[in-house]
Write a structure and sequence with these properties.
The chain is mainly β and 235 residues long. It has no helices and 17 strands. It is globular and about 50 Å long.
Length: 235
Amino acid sequence: MLAGEAFRQSGTISNASLNGPVAFTVAGSDVTAGPFAAGAVFNADGAGNIASGTEDLNDAGSVSPNAPVSGTYALDASGRGTLSLSNVDIGTLTFAIYPTTNGVQMLDTNGTLVVTGAAFPQTGALSNGTVQGAYGMNYTGATANGELDVVASLNANGAGHMTAIQDISNPGAGPPSSGTALTGDYTLDATGRGPLTLQSFLGQQNMAIYVLNGNRALFVELDPDIVAAGAMEHQ
């Protein structure tokens, strides 16, 4: 059973359609290992090259954080393209990509991964101060007890700390938990990436966060017992 969304493509699509700083997250399954999530920030030059970037990967609890990556991409007027990101330690991820008005849609084509997600342009100078005010947050993950779904309302102080109230559904671990406390700490570098640590009755959760702008950020979990990806958006 499948469900999805369609987004408009506009203008003439070429390598120049992917230009500047970009962040993405993808999630799905490694067919030989289990749940999979990855995220990255990179800089596209508008001519098919990615000279530098940083990738975080959680392959069924096997975590590879903060890995430097480089790569290439090719887009043509059909509206379709390819993207390759490589690191000497974690190998190469390859994607079919489709630029749209709602980000660059991504589908992994490695063969051993069933993974999708989207990439979005990053704008403005990025720092801890970029993340400030009230946000809605959600993420979906996989645990030993099955699927984990979380929604939260949080407030970030712009100086690396946030407080929140969250609702959690993890049927394998018992009934839903409503209105429980959550705190977090984050540290962003100039690429918009950094560690995000959450504290709640679930324990400490270690994330990598990728800020797009003052209104939106993506993140993936980098813990061996939870494989998750999510987003937060300004309220």
